[in-house]
C-alpha cells in the first residue's frame, strides 16, 4: 500500500496566502520524512470560502520541497479546461518531476465554475470524454488529427510530452455510477472521493471491476482512495472531533453544487450515522484495522490522507499527520 497526503484548502482570502504555502510545504516535507509516496492537489476556480491554488504550478513547487514523492492532480476539472493546455501542462509537470506525475481528472459540479468557462453543464460528460481522448493522443508522440465537437487539432506532433515510461497514469474521479463506469473505460484507475458510504464504496468498486472486465481491461491496476480519518484515543473521542469538523467543509461543497446519489446527509438526527458511514475513527490501531480492511476487501493500493480541516490549527493537523505516519503506517507496513 502507498500513502498520499492531500494538499487541501482550509482558508479563504482573509488569511495570508503565504501561510497556506508554508503549511503545505510543512505537510509534504514531513510526509516525505514519514515515508509517504504521493502528494495530491485538487482544482477549483473562483472559490471565496476556500482558496484553491492551481494544481500544476502548486505541485511543481511542492515537488521541490519533497523530491522523492509522486505528484497527482486530484482532480483537474477536465470538462472546463482546454485539453491542449492541460496536456502540455501535465507533460511539463512530468518532466519537472522526473516522470512522477499522475493525471487525476473529473467532471466538476459547481455552477459558477461552468458559467465562468462558458460551459453548459449538460455537455460536461461529452466534453470530458472528448478532452481525455485528445489529451492521450497529444501525449502519444504520434501525429494528431482530431476533429471533435468542442476542440480540433490537425497535423500536430507536440514536442511537449511526458517522460514517464508508459505515459502519465490517468485517475478518473467521481462518486456516481456513471463516473465509475467512465473511469473503468477511459482511465487507469478510479479515484474515489470520501463521500460514498462504506457500503456504497464497496458497490462502486464492484461496478468498476465489472465494467473493466466487460471491456476486456486489466483488473490489476491501482485503486487510490480517500476516506476521512480522525485519530483519537478511541472512537467516541473520534466522533466528537468529527462532529466539530465535518459540517463546515461539506456545507461548502454543497453550497458549490455538489450533489448526487452519494451526497452526505447533513440533517441533525442523521449526522452521527452519516459520519460513521463515511469516516474511519479512533486509535491508531483502529484506523490501521480499517485501512487494512479496505486493502483486503476492495484492493485499495493508495490511501490519500487529509489532515487539514477548516478551523483546525495547523499544529493540530501536524500532530495527526505525525501520529498517522509513525503509528498507522508503521502498523500497516508491519
Radius of gyration: 19 Å
Give the number of helices.
11
Structural class: alpha/beta
Question: Any idea how many domains?
Answer: 1
Order of helical and strand elements: EHEHEEHEHHEEEHEHEEHHEHEH
Q: Ends: how far apart?
A: 12 Å
Strand tally is 13
Query: pLDDT under 50 segments (min length 5)?
Result: none
CATH class: Alpha Beta
Inertia-based shape: globular
CATH architecture term: Alpha-Beta Barrel
CATH homologous superfamily classification = Luciferase-like domain
Average pLDDT value? 93
Q: Largest sheet at a glance?
A: 9 strands, parallel
Strand content: 15-25%
State the helical fraction.
40-55%
CATH topology: TIM Barrel
Keywords:
Luciferase-like domain-containing protein; 334 residues; TIM Barrel; 11 helices; 13 strands; 9-stranded parallel beta sheet; Luciferase-like_sf
What does this structure look like?
With 334 residues, the protein is α/β, with parallel strands linked by helices. The protein has one domain: Alpha-Beta Barrel (TIM Barrel). Helices cover 47% and strands 16% of the residues. Strands 1, 2, 3, 4, 5, 8, 9, 10 and 13 form a nine-stranded parallel sheet that branches. The chain has a two-stranded antiparallel ribbon with strand order 6-7. A hairpin with a 4-residue loop joins strand 6 and strand 7. It is globular. The protein starts with a strand and ends with a helix. InterPro entries: Luciferase-like_dom, Luciferase-like_sf, SsuD_RutA_monooxygenase.
